[in-house]
């Protein structure tokens, strides 16, 4: 059996290997595979995200530069051409299913501890250099959207979908699961009365923006505290008719809260919550910034902007692996106490992947194998 004391090996212990094996069997992902099985592909791609590799050749070079330690980390020999073929052809369901299994296990563990669920919904566009038809949205631009449902209380994504960048956010929202009784916060990209009505019917609270030209028929004006950022608070009904003389499915009353931002701009926040304090609803909308910070963290720390393949399958697999890697980092971070800040912890993981030391001891100057390298690009020289 391989030694299990490398940092990378300790990190991948958090993967749900039973679920991975079942997904591989269900999708027959390894049928006819002789060189790089799907579990090895998953490990190589997680290593790529953590090591800051910029290409398939980078992955191969980093793995081969420390062949002896690769065994103890459970990592495969992964020629760039073999890994590229695997990313282009293996079922993406193995990787999305692994992410879903990790989320389900975490939700079962944290449900009682976290209490009410507050989900943030948004998408982020990731540019692609390849102008393939599946990802093209203009004559000279191509990209994809990662649509995310983010649990603000737990600090992690719970659902994701990948579409071409030209797909509207609301179209992707219809495929997102709805947790009855939860709170959903989103922006104007999900401005759709039928979607709001579906959340309302599920007993969910939603908080979003109201367009400046949307009329609200008052039924009650509420008092607001003086000197705060809430300028007005009223309850009313949305327009009865939509374009084309269609009836508005959102028949229940809603609440409009006009909020003045720090910049001086005024926005109309709307919710189906008619009872909570206005400041609470305004603060819920403000929490949207959390998912923007998550997008920035994933792009900068896991280098998700660098794709190893341009096919639709390869892009979907890499985004799934990036989110799996984020969950692994969160789990490992929660399992130690030496490093409090998540970004610093991720950097220490990256710099010490193949070292044989407890994750608890990932601190500068406290390592068994000497100080960590100054940057990821020194890893190949260090391990050679």
Structural notes for this entry:
The structure is a single chain. The protein has 384 residues and is α+β, with helices and mostly antiparallel strands. It has two domains: 7-95 and 306-383, no CATH class; 179-288, no CATH class. The protein is built from 14 helices and eleven strands. The strands form two sheets. It has a nine-stranded mixed sheet with strand order 3-2-1-4-5-11-10-7-6, sandwiched between helices. It starts with 6 loop residues before the first helix and ends with a helix.
Q: What features would you highlight for this structure?
A:
11 strands, nine-stranded mixed sheet, 2 domains, alpha+beta, 14 helices, elongated, disordered C terminus, 40% helix, 384 residues
Tell me the β content: 15-25%
Tally of structural domains? 2
Q: How are the strands of the largest sheet arranged?
A: 3-2-1-4-5-11-10-7-6
Q: Per the principal axes of the C-alpha atoms, what is the gross shape?
A: elongated
Helix-strand makeup class: alpha+beta
**In angstroms, what separates the terminal alpha carbons?**
24 Å
Number of helices: 14
Overall average residue pLDDT: 88
């Amino acid at each position: 059996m391989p030694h299990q004391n490398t940092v990378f090996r300790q990190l991948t212990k958090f993967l749900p290997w039973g679920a991975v094996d079942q997904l591989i069997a269900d999708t027959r992902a390894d049928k006819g595979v002789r060189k790089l099985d799907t579990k090895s592909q998953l490990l190589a791609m997680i290593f790529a995200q953590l090591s800051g590799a910029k290409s398939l050749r980078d992955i191969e070079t980093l793995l081969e530069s420390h062949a002896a330690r690769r065994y103890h980390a459970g990592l495969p020999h992964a020629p760039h051409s073999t890994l590229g073929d695997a990313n282009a052809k293996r079922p993406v369901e193995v990787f999305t299913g692994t992410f879903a299994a990790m989320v389900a296990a975490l939700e079962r563990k944290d449900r009682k501890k976290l209490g009410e669920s507050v989900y943030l919904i948004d998408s982020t566009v990731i540019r692609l250099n390849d102008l393939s038809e599946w990802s093209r949205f203009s004559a000279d631009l191509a990209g994809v959207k990662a649509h995310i449902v983010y649990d603000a209380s737990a600090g992690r994504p719970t659902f994701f979908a990948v579409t071409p960048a030209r797909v509207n956010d609301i179209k992707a929202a219809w495929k997102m699961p709805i947790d009855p009784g939860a709170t959903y916060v989103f922006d104007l990209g999900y401005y759709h009365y039928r979607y709001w009505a579906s959340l309302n019917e599920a007993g969910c609270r939603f908080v979003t923006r109201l367009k400046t030209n949307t009329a609200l028929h008052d039924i009650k004006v509420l008092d607001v505290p003086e000197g705060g950022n809430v300028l007005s608070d009223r309850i009313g009904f949305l327009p009865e008719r939509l374009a084309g003389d269609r009836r508005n499915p959102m028949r229940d009353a809603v609440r409009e809260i006009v909020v003045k931002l720090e910049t001086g701009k005024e926005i109309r926040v709307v919710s189906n919550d008619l009872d909570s304090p206005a400041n609470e609803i305004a603060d819920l909308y403000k929490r949207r910034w959390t998912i923007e910070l998550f997008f920035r963290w994933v792009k900068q720390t896991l280098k998700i902007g660098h794709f190893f393949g341009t096919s639709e399958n390869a892009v979907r697999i890499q985004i799934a692996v990036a989110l799996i890697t984020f969950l692994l980092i969160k789990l490992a971070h929660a399992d130690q106490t030496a490093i409090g800040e998540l970004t610093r912890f991720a950097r220490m993981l990256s710099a010490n992947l193949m070292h044989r030391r407890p994750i608890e001891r990932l601190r500068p100057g406290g390592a068994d194998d000497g100080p960590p390298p100054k940057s990821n690009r020194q890893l190949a020289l260090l391990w050679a």
